[in-house]
Amino acid sequence: MDAVERIRTPRRGVTRNGTRDSERTQAAILVAATREFAQHGLGGARVDRIAAGARTNKRMLYYYYGSKEALFVAVLEETYASIRRAEKALSLLDVDPVESVHRLVEFTWNYYLAHPEFLTLLNSENLHGARHVRKSPNVREMNSPLIETLAEVLARGARSGVFRGGVDALQLYVTIAALSYFYLSNNQTLSAVFGRDLATARARKERLQHMVDVVLGYLRADRCA
After folding, report:
1. Which of 42, 54, 149, 210 fits 28 for a cystine, CB–CB 3.0-4.6 Å?
2. What residues pair up with 220 in beta bridges, in sequence order?
3. pLDDT for 77-112, tens place per residue?
4. Which of 196, 35, 216, 18 is nearest to 124 (CA)?
5. pTM of the predicted model as reported, rounded to 2 decimal places
6. Domains of the chain, with CATH numbers?
7. Following CA atoms 24, 29, 34, 39 in sequence, which dihedral angle do they give, to the nearest 10 degrees?
8. 220 and 162 Cβ atoms separated by less than 8 Å
9. CA-based angle 135:174:80, to the nearest 5?
10. CA 126, CA 166: separation in Å to the nearest integer?
11. pLDDT digits (tens, 9 = 90+) for 143-171
């Protein structure tokens, strides 16, 4: 049994109260680990600090997750699962295509603002060549439904004549994510280089409107006429 399998293998032979205690302990470990990995990266993270933050001990951490790397995989899985759960609540197929895209752009921006750990964890994993994400059989499944939904939104928009045809849903999603990601990940250096505070409430509001205009402007059917 490898480390990833150990993450998802339920512990047997416990009472109902014991199960609840186990679930609470594992949830506390994930919260503490997310904070630790986001702040220090995989290499700098310390199991002692994670255990202390979760108010448990290293023995329990290794019991549930097997190793620090396996725990990092679990944190990445939960990080992706959290944003996908939030995206589902957008109900993108229940509104017109323009509103759907507007919602997705605004959601992505606000989610990154509210969850800076999402960006730092991705930065850390990219430094490791995404080898931990590749170990997870769940992450790809989490991301596929969103791209399929966005593809349907784009198809509806093309059929109704408001969007151009032939837009790749994956490419569009990467663009939406990049417009938020680069601005926020490099906010300090951008502000310093250009002598303009790009972290103020006004600057962030202007950035969001700019992103919406850029994405919807690209999708407009009449831009190809």
Report:
1. 54
2. 163
3. 999 999 988 988 999 999 999 999 999 999 999 999
4. 35
5. 0.83
6. 3-224 (1.10.357.10)
7. 140
8. yes
9. 40
10. 30
11. 778 899 999 999 999 999 999 999 999 99
